[in-house]
Amino acid sequence: MDLIxxxxxxxxxxxxxxxxxxxxxxxxxxxLRALMVKLKYAVSRDKNAKVNSRKIPLAIFAxxxxxWSIFEPILEELEKKHQETVYLTCSKDDPIFGKDYKYIxxxxxxxxxxxxxxxxxxxASVVFSTTPSLDVFQWKRSKNVDCYIHIMHAxxxxxxxxxxxxxxxxxxxxxxxxQIKQIRQLEELRGLPERDYALCGVPYLDEMKKRLESAGEVxxxxxxxxxxxxxxxxxxxxxxxxxxxxxxxxxxxxxxxxPHPQSFDVETKxxxxxxxxxxxxxxxxxxxxxxxxxxxxxxDILISDFSGVMFEFAMVFDKPIIYTDTKFDPxxxxxxxxxxxxxxxxxxxSLGLELNEDNADGIKELIDRCIEDPSFTEGRxxxxxxxxxxxxxxxxxxxxxxxxxxxxxxxxxxxLGTPSVSASKRFNKKKQSVEVT
Length: 437
Description:
single chain, alpha/beta, Rossmann fold, 2 domains, seven-stranded parallel β-sheet, six-stranded parallel β-sheet, about 45% helix, about 15% strand, globular, disordered C terminus
């Protein structure tokens, strides 16, 4: 009985002891979890450090296989010039893995944070990419990279990236004089040092032009209208939808609708409804071809909003466009720092006519006028001179600039007394490997 009394704990004290006990258990569990995270990070860091121990002469980062057309012409030139290169891609089925290059190696680096963890510890002399926001979001500058070079994936203003999109790049491959002015304006406004650049042109447009020239004349066909919207609430299908499709059908012209690939992911219900409603192929043809070349080549006019395909259609295929007012708000973009309308929007009236709520019912008249008005031919010539310099030479000039930057950084290190190892010894060449790191 005395023992029972001795072991007795009143409810208040017992509750307090259990609280303390659970607290201790919680601390232990939390500490163990934290330790596991640290160990996992240490292992990952050691693994990445081992992978990146050899200095890569040139690394190209492709965020998605969709940018293959941007890089391929430049890769071909780098291969011709025997420039050892590692092509880092986030797509397992990237076209790089089907190429038989001797000096260029493809590596799959995973997606999302896995890819960026590799990039953030990368050991390379030069990194070349079309991905903006370096050192702004997940992708950080590696202390072991000497130079980052940026190329745009569309012919447009360099200020149309989200805020600070190119601030942390060291050099640029540009396609128009006005882009140089924009870079210098941003540097002055933000107190950035002047960065190097090369006015090279647009390699992927050069390739598209070559392909068009070799394709021959387009066979005689009925007047064809291509509706190729972007996605989102300001896209044509979201703003005009059934009303525009009905108006286009009423013209009697052949109608092809090619939604943006992203629409099938984020606007699924809207597209499913429209495709179910307009399922008569004699009136509307829905196009989902991966390669848009043939549909652009055989169409007579393009209707779009803020998609880069407008400039491909106008400048390469030399055909008119109809565009919508995108109500572009620059507040989140670098364009907000510069007190002028971006070229991408100011050039549109030279390329075609605007579609709006007031004239959507008269779409046939808009189409006929755009196709038949010779002033738009002159406008397309102006657009080419503004944004597409060195036509036919863009890829070679781009490759030459990249190699020049590589030589500059390696020579600078050598002049400072940094031990130099030949690229062939630094770079562990593995023939077209698919590697997750």
